[in-house]
């Protein structure tokens, strides 16, 4: 399978009850995902609660993750922010050992124009020692990266190799798939519509649900990539409710609750995120077969 085709997982960052990073649980999560057959991992994306980790913590998590993965699968580092100079400095200082690409979400809160988004990624591309995967997630950033901007970046910078697309905007997706360079990767960033996006031409997904169900989810994605959508549909339908629950009270609260039930790691989050309520937790248990 080609690089970054298939299922990538945006890993959670396990925390101890006291809020410190739980490295034993992180090792367990990494092994759980690799044993589950996923194609690659993403460290410290949004799902990893990267916004609540300090610079030294991030450095330690990146280093530990690279050592724990030990080149068994491809590994992507999440490095993003709304201060372009800071993001560029972080990328320049990043120890690339063990990493294959950088995933960088478009700037949040500032609400830049498309010209500003282009210049932001231009600065990143010119500084990056690794290939760049763009990330369009307007539900979190407040601004969508247009198809025109993505295509322009793809054509202007050879080290911008793809985009994690989580806009859910099929008008944008239609234009993007029509106009992008042939070798530019479009990766689903939206678990519920990954099947549909692969039917349009996406090469896979960077998943939240895959933290909890790596084997089930990655098998479904492989069927889709093989063109066996009929064979993938039963799995797709069977996890609709589980997927909904993963986001019902925010991410990664849902998937951390599931991972706790599976015995992979605890469900501690850092404020301002909080755990799912008792009702959602019970529903997650039912979906996992922990209770009936």
Structure write-up:
It is a single chain. The radius of gyration is 18 Å and the shape is globular. It is of the alpha/beta class and 292 residues long. The model has no long low-confidence stretch (mean pLDDT 97). Strands 7-6-5-4-3-2-1-8 form an eight-stranded parallel beta sheet. It has a single domain, classed as Aldolase class I (TIM Barrel, Alpha-Beta Barrel). Helices cover 46% and strands 13% of the residues.
User: What form results from the Cα inertia axes?
Assistant: globular
Task: Write down the CATH class.
Answer: Alpha Beta
Roughly what is the average pLDDT, rounded to an integer? 97
Q: State the helicity in percent bands.
A: 40-55%
Count of runs of 4 or more consecutive helical residues: 13
Unreliable segments of 5+ consecutive residues: none
User: Which class do the helix and strand fractions yield?
Assistant: alpha/beta
Give the total of domains. 1
Instruction: Give me the Rg, rounded.
Output: 18 Å
Q: How many strand units? A: 8
Subunit structure: Homotetramer; dimer of dimers.
InterPro entries: Aldolase_TIM, DapA, DapA-like, Schiff_base-form_aldolases_AS
EC number: 4.3.3.7
Keywords: Amino-acid biosynthesis, Cytoplasm, Diaminopimelate biosynthesis, Lyase, Lysine biosynthesis, Schiff base
């Amino acid at each position: 399978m080609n690089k970054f085709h298939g299922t990538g997982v945006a890993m959670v960052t396990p925390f101890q009850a006291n809020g410190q990073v739980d490295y034993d649980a992180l090792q367990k999560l990494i092994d759980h995902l690799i044993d589950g057959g996923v194609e690659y991992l993403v460290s410290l994306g949004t799902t990893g609660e990267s916004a609540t980790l300090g610079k030294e913590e991030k450095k330690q998590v990146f280093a530990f993750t690279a050592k724990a993965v030990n080149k068994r699968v491809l590994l992507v580092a999440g490095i993003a922010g709304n201060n372009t100079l800071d993001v560029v400095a972080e990328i320049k200082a990043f120890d690339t050992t063990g990493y294959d690409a950088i995933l960088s979400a478009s700037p949040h809160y500032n609400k830049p124009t498309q010209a500003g988004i282009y210049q932001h990624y231009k600065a990143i591309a010119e500084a990056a020692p690794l290939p760049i995967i763009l990330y369009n997630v307007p539900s979190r950033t407040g601004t969508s990266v247009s198809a025109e901007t993505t295509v322009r970046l793809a054509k202007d910078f050879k080290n911008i190799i793809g985009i994690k697309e989580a806009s859910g905007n099929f008008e944008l997706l239609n234009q993007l798939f029509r106009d992008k360079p042939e070798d530019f990767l479009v990766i689903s960033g939206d678990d519920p519509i990954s099947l549909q996006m692969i039917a349009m031409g996406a090469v896979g997904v960077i998943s939240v649900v895959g933290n909890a169900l790596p084997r089930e989810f990655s098998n479904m994605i492989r069927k889709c990539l093989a063109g066996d959508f009929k064979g993938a549909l039963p799995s797709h339908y069977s996890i609709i409710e589980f997927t909904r629950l993963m986001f019902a009270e925010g991410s990664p609260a849902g998937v951390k609750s599931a991972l706790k039930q599976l015995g992979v790691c605890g469900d501690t989050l850092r404020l301002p995120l909080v755990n799912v309520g008792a009702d959602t937790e019970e529903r997650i248990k039912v979906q996992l077969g922990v209770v009936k």
